[in-house]
Design brief:
Order of helices and strands: HEHEEHHHH
Radius of gyration: 16 Å
Largest sheet: 3 strands, mixed
Strand order of the largest sheet: 1-3-2
């Protein structure tokens, strides 16, 4: 028998990357009631892994996280501001889907905070309780 194992409209039929994209969109949607105006011009994207130039070896790396989970890029030369979330490092960190959703939300909050020049606690008051 050939063909899909599940109809395309059920969650099991979605790929891991599509489910991860949904987690990022959910995190952004949770911020929109309070920060919708500031986020309206921000693009959100998912990449598999950080670019090689973001992976630094040696003593400089000891002071920060070994692998970045995301990055924020301010608007520049006609390009809109962007928040990029790295899928593979976050999936490797999470033990289950629920924890992955929480981690994705925290990373989105951290990157939005960085982009807007605010603290994560200002972006999401519940952030402090989770850390």
């Amino acid at each position: 028998m050939r063909g899909p194992l599940a109809p395309s409209h059920v969650p099991i039929a979605r790929s891991r990357s599509e489910r991860f994209d949904d987690l990022v969109l959910d995190a952004v949607d949770r911020l929109k009631p309070r920060w919708g105006k500031q986020l309206s011009a921000v693009e959100f994207a998912v990449e598999e892994v950080p670019p090689a130039e973001d992976l630094v070896d040696g003593p400089a790396r000891l002071a920060s996280d070994p692998i970045p989970f995301g990055r924020a890029e301010p608007a520049a030369s006609g390009d809109p501001a962007a928040v990029i979330i790295y899928r593979r490092p976050l999936e490797a960190r999470a033990r289950d889907r629920e924890q992955l959703g929480a981690i994705v939300h925290d990373v989105v909050v951290e990157q939005v905070a960085d982009l807007l020049g605010l603290s994560p606690e200002t972006i999401d008051p519940g952030y402090d309780e989770r850390h």
